């Protein structure tokens, strides 16, 4: 990683980790066989393998453990996005309150708005 950083002529490159913490209802091109609930230790293992380059991740806030996961990652300086989700307004609001700040695939990989919710 030091060698890469020495060769860069600007800001360090960072990675966006999309998946596998999504809902199968809005999986997009993701393989549903790999979808699972968020796990901080699993993420840390991936980020360590990526030499700490993962700085943003997308999750579906309705997955079990998502709120705790979002809090843990935002406390580490990781940007959390909501996407590939079938979350209710209450679930999405809880995720934002926990620290999620970005939405991906808005109005595409998500459940539609409902005026009755």
TrEMBL record:
Annotated protein name in UniProt: CAZy families CE9 protein
Keyword Hydrolase: yes
Transmembrane segments: none
Family annotation (PANTHER family): N-ACETYLGLUCOSAMINE-6-PHOSPHATE DEACETYLASE
Superkingdom of origin: Bacteria
Keyword Hydrolase: yes
Keywords, sorted A to Z: Hydrolase
Alphabetized GO MF terms: N-acetylglucosamine-6-phosphate deacetylase activity
InterPro entries in alphabetical order: Metal_Hydrolase
One GO term of the biological process aspect: N-acetylglucosamine catabolic process
Family, as annotated: Belongs to the metallo-dependent hydrolases superfamily. NagA family.
């Amino acid at each position: 990683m030091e060698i890469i950083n020495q060769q860069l002529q600007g800001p360090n490159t960072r990675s966006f980790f999309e998946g596998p913490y999504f809902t199968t209802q809005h999986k997009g091109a993701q393989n549903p066989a790999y979808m699972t609930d968020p796990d901080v230790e699993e993420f840390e293992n991936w980020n360590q393998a990526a030499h700490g380059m993962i700085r943003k991740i997308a999750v579906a806030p309705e997955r079990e453990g998502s709120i705790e996961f979002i809090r843990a990652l935002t406390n580490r300086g990781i940007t959390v996005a909501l996407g590939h989700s079938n979350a209710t307004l209450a679930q999405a609001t809880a995720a934002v309150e926990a620290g999620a700040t970005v939405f991906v695939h808005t109005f595409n990989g998500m459940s539609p708005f409902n005026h009755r919710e």
